[in-house]
């Protein structure tokens, strides 16, 4: 296959690029920076981030792209100043509009667009269970970004492209993403409950996420919202117990929510608030999770580290 990836040098895009190349698929990365590659299956196409209406990048596109994976966007991990919040929004919308313009002009229409999204689409709740059938109006900054981004991506369906809205939960990887930062306090003996501890964490192992993205990309019966989470969410206080066990570290510190809010501001919602989200679409299509439970997921991710200590 020929696969186009935006955000292909980031955490998720980089992992997917490696996975696809192992299968001998040709990967075209639409990048804001200048990159070169001598690998026969890896190709870079540069666009001008300062001028998103400039379509000269299209000249470097191959005649046929089978699947597009759109992961482009400023990181949510940086402090949410007003300027960065605007960048979070604009970076996602502008690149998605670029893709829609290319699809409209393309001689051969891609089969699918798998567009990154987030379970932040759903409102925060400690008691309600959500799946892809639930629809909501925006209720905070993150849900506003997600709703606008999904709406922009859906426009590609008007050109005959199957659109998948991949709503990511908490992605667990031992080297990148949020988990290494979450694990750090435990390594210094300061792990434990954050805020009330009752907030839900809907998570997914990085290997299951890669498989789910590939699965949704080629399965012609899947379109629209797809929750990319494991089938067993946990409250933060229980997540903490499993994490401390996987690391072989104590779990007794309690950090009040107001302290986290004071340090992180609005961004603290990523830690102190959550949703119980189920991957109904994946399960209805018989997707097989390698790591369906948090215990085996964390044990796998920290197996070598824990063994080195014993």
From TrEMBL:
Belongs to the NAD(P)-dependent epimerase/dehydratase family. SDR39U1 subfamily. Residues 255-301 form the DUF1731 domain. PANTHER family: EPIMERASE FAMILY PROTEIN SDR39U1, SUGAR NUCLEOTIDE EPIMERASE RELATED. This is TIGR01777 family oxidoreductase. Residues 3-219 form the NAD-dependent epimerase/dehydratase domain. It comes from Candidatus Salinicoccus stercoripullorum. It comes from the Bacteria.
């Amino acid at each position: 296959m020929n696969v186009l990836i935006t955000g292909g040098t980031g955490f998720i895009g980089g992992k997917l690029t490696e996975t696809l190349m192992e299968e001998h698929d040709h990967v075209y990365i639409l990048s804001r920076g200048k990159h070169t590659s001598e690998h026969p299956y890896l190709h870079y196409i540069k666009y001008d981030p300062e001028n998103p209406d400039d379509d000269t990048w299209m000249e470097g596109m191959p005649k046929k792209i089978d699947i597009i994976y759109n992961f482009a966007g400023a990181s949510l991990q940086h402090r949410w100043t007003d300027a960065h919040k605007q960048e979070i929004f604009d970076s996602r919308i502008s690149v998605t509009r670029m893709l829609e313009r290319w699809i409209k002009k393309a001689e051969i229409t891609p089969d699918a667009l798998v567009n990154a999204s987030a379970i932040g689409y759903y409102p925060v709740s400690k008691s309600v269970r959500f799946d892809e059938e639930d629809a909501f109006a925006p209720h905070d900054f993150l849900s506003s970004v997600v709703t606008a981004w999904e709406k922009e991506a859906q426009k590609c369906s008007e050109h005959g492209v199957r659109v998948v809205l991949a709503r990511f939960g908490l992605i667990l990887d031992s080297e990148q993403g949020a988990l290494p930062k979450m694990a750090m306090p435990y390594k210094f003996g300061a792990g434990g409950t954050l805020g009330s501890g009752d907030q839900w964490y809907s998570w997914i192992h990085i290997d299951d996420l890669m498989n789910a993205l590939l699965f949704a990309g080629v399965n012609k019966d899947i379109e629209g919202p797809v929750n990319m989470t494991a089938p067993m969410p946990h409250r933060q206080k229980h997540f903490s117990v499993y994490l401390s066990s996987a690391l072989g570290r104590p779990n007794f510190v309690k950090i009040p929510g107001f302290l986290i809010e004071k340090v992180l501001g609005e961004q603290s919602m990523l830690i102190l608030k959550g949703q119980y989200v189920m991957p109904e679409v994946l399960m209805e299509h018989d997707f097989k999770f390698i790591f369906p439970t948090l215990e085996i997921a964390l044990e796998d991710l920290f197996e070598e580290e824990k063994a080195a200590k014993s």
